[in-house]
């Protein structure tokens, strides 16, 4: 499958645990959550802002910032979680 730049998101933060939540930056610059329950589909996530990311996700809820952000095709977010966060093959 050939991904276009419009299909690539930046993983900005993730929550620890068995079912990590991702905060991804969309190509238009907006931020969304991506959940295990939705197959990490950003279109089915909640829109959030930079302040929420810093103050709530990272500041209060133990999310880990991804710095520099990981650029991942949106369709490959589930594989990214399995490989990079859960250590699965």
Largest sheet at a glance? Answer: 5 strands, antiparallel
- Taken from the alpha-carbon principal axes, the silhouette is globular
Distance between the terminal alpha carbons, to the nearest Å? 20 Å
What's the number of helices?
2
In quaternary terms, these chains amount to single chain
| Order of H and E elements | EEEEHEH
How much helix, percentage-wise, in residues? 10-25%
Task: Determine the mean pLDDT.
Answer: 92
Parts with pLDDT < 50 across at least 5 consecutive residues: none
Beta content comes to: 25-35%
Please list the strands of the largest sheet in the order they lie side by side. 4-3-2-1-5
Structural class of the secondary structure composition?
alpha+beta
Query: What's the Cα radius of gyration?
Result: 12 Å
Count every beta strand, where a strand is a DSSP E run of 2 or more residues: 5
SSE layout and pairings?
Blueprint: E1 8-14, E2 22-25, E3 31-34, E4 47-48, H1 50-60, E5 64-73, H2 77-85
Antiparallel strand pairs: 1-2, 1-5, 2-3, 3-4
Gist of the model:
This protein is an alpha+beta fold.
Characterization of the model:
The chain is an alpha+beta fold and 89 residues long. Helices cover 22% and strands 30% of the residues. The protein contains 2 helices and 5 strands. The protein has helices at 50-60, 77-85, and strands spanning 8-14, 22-25, 31-34, 47-48, 64-73. A 5-stranded antiparallel sheet has the order 4-3-2-1-5. A hairpin with a 7-residue loop joins strand 1 (8-14) and strand 2. The protein is globular, with a radius of gyration of 12 Å.
